[in-house]
Amino acid sequence: MVGVLLTIGIGWGSTQALGKIAASTGYPPLGMVFWQLVVCTVVLGAMTVVRGKGLVVTPRAVQFYVVVAVLGTIVPGLTFYISVARLPAGIMSIIISTVPMMAFPIGLLLGAEHFSWRRLFGLALGLTGVLIIALPDASLPDPAMAAFLPLALIGPLFYALEGSYVAKVGTAGMDAVQAMFGASLVGAIIIAPVMWAMGQGFLISQLGAPELALIGSSALHAVLYAAFVWLAARAGAVFATQTGYIVTASGMIWAALILGERFSPLVILAVVILLGGIALVQPKAARTE
Questions:
Q1: CA neighbours within 13 Å on the CB side: how many for 159?
Q2: To 10 degrees, the CA torsion angle through 227, 149, 123, 245?
Q3: How far apart are CA 94 and CA 89, in angstroms?
Q4: Average pLDDT, the chain
Q5: Residues 6+ away with beta carbon under 8 Å from 206
Q6: Cα 75–129–248 angle (5° rounding)?
Q7: By three-state DSSP, how is residue 144 classified?
Q8: Dihedral sign of CA atoms 107, 13, 128, 117 in order
């Protein structure tokens, strides 16, 4: 189980650097989100067929597809590609780890979580880590990049909203792979006309580094998501969510190895503080069975 956990975390961590490469040529963000959804649809659709299942088309399922496509892919994907073109991939790996911090206040507002001083302190600690990253001349190569941090945080916010929605309404009787197959397909259908209307559509006519990075990161996301669901079912949600720590650490390492990014001591301090806050914010095992 530990080997699967490490594989998922290391694999997911690489998608930040791959996303940076994909966005490096100036491809429009809506077009990149569309192709991400297409790749996920193909990969998850193939997995669904191989498992002897199909696409569920019921009113509840379609509603699920639309909400999850918007909250879990279209909006966070759009803000990711805009942000990663302007921020270091390692910083994006740190930002993505804030999902549990976002989920806690959302859960309180929805009545799904109970107030806890421990978790409130964890939230404050995590926000402190983010603020350290935003300090002028502290961590970012260009202080002007700090203006894009709020945009980068929209993705984790919408992932947290998606998680809260799924926790509240379930997956309409589908398993997770079926559900994400349908959400990816519907997401591609939703975004296609918007993409072309805004002039952001493009065809993948060559397979250079950016195109391969886009396809590879999308396929990795689909496969690793399925593996994450399997791990959560076998080892429990609390164990599976530890992938978040590995994603952050491996994302920074991948950014250094692939992109040559380097991080100041203040960034390392921010990561330690942020991950400490996340550890406090996450629910205890007894509450996630």
A1: 18
A2: 30
A3: 9
A4: 86
A5: none
A6: 60
A7: helix
A8: positive
Q: What is the pLDDT of residues 224-282, one digit of tens each?
A: 877 876 776 576 655 666 777 888 889 899 999 999 988 888 888 888 988 888 888 87
How distant, in Å, are the alpha carbons of 2, 45, 93, 231 from that of 226?
Answer: 16, 12, 20, 9
> Contact, 53 vs 174, CB < 8 A?
no
Q: In the predicted model, is pLDDT for residue 288 greater than 70?
A: no
> Given a cut of 90, is residue 116 above it in pLDDT?
no
Q: Which of 78, 23, 47 is nearest to 219 (CA)?
A: 47
Domains in the chain: boundaries: 2-287
Q: Which DSSP symbol is given to 145? A: G
Please state, as a whole number, how many other Cβ atoms lie within 10 Å of the Cβ of residue 183.
29
Q: Are 140 and 91 in contact (CB under 8 A)?
A: yes
Tell me the C-alpha distance between 111 and 51, whole Å. Answer: 37
> Confidence class of residue 213 from pLDDT cuts 50, 70 and 90?
very high
Structure-token pair, residue 2 = 């530990």
| CB atoms near residue 97 (< 10 Å) | 22
- pLDDT tens digits, one per residue of 7-39: 888 988 899 999 999 988 889 999 999 999 999
The residue whose two tokens read 């530990």 is 2
Residue 87 to residue 183: CA distance in whole angstroms = 28
The structure's pTM equals 0.87
In angstroms, the CA 12 to CA 279 distance is: 19
What pLDDT is recorded for position 193?
Answer: 95
